[in-house]
Amino acid sequence: MSGIFDETNMKQVLGRYIPQGETLLAGIHAIAKETSVTGVFGKCSRTEDGLIPDENGGTVALSKNGYSTSDIYFGITQSAFVIAGCERNSYYYEFDDAPAAGTKVQEVTSKIFFADIGTYFPLADIQNCEIKKGWMGSLKCSLKMKNGSYFKLIFPKFGGAGGGMPHHAQYRDAITARLNGN
C-alpha cells in the first residue's frame, strides 16, 4: 500500500496514458468514490479483454462503471486530465450494439484494452466541475463530461505518510486551478 504514495511510481503509471507530445504537469494520489465512463467505438469486434479493429465489425457502446472506493492517480497535461488506478480495480461493464443517435463514434484502429478505456479526457470536454471542501482538509471533486461520463473523486490534503509525494500540495493546487478553468 505504501508504494502507491510514491511520486516516481505515479509519474510512470500516468505516463502510460499520455499521448506523445504532451507531458504531465501535475499529478497526485486521489480516491475515486464513483466512476462512470461511456464511449462508442466503431469498426470493431469485442474480445474477452478489449476491442479489436474489424473492417466488417459493428459499433459498440460501452459503459464502464466503478462503484467502490479505490486509490487512483490523477494528473493533468497541457490539454487533458489522466486517471489511472494505483492497483488493479474491478469494473462493471455494459455493452450495447445500438448507441444513441448522434453519438460521437471513435473508430478502433488498434486493440484497446477495456482497462485502458476512460483514462484520458480532454479538459475541453468537461461539462461541469464542482470542487467542495471535504473532511480533514480534503477536496471533493465531481466531474461531468460532455459525453455523459462522470467521476466523483476525493483529493486528500496530504500525499500519504513517509514523504514519497513531496509535491502533493503544490500539484493539488495546480490541478484544482486547472479544473476550475484557471
Shape descriptor: globular
Q: How many beta-strand segments?
A: 12
- Rg (C-alpha, Å): 17 Å
How far do the termini sit from each other?
33 Å
Query: What portion of the residues fall into strands of 2 or more residues?
Result: 35-45%
Give the low-confidence spans: none
Q: How do the helices and strands follow one another from N- to C-terminus?
A: HEEEEEEEEEEEEH
Q: Based on helices, strands and strand pairing, what is the structural class?
A: mainly beta
What do the pLDDT scores average to? 92
Number of helices: 2
Helix-residue proportion: 10-25%
The biggest beta sheet is recorded as: 12 strands, mixed
Describe this structure in words.
It is globular, with a radius of gyration of 17 Å. It has two helices and twelve strands. It is mainly β and about 180 residues long. Helix content is about 10%, strand content about 45%. The mean pLDDT is about 90. Strands 1, 2, 3, 4, 5, 6, 7, 8, 9, 10, 11 and 12 form a twelve-stranded mixed β-sheet that branches.
Give the SSE layout:
Elements: H1 7-15, E1 26-46, E2 50-53, E3 58-66, E4 70-76, E5 80-85, E6 92-96, E7 106-107, E8 112-113, E9 120-122, E10 126-133, E11 139-145, E12 150-155, H2 168-179
Parallel strand pairs: 1-7
Antiparallel strand pairs: 1-2, 1-3, 1-4, 1-12, 2-8, 3-6, 4-5, 5-9, 10-11, 11-12
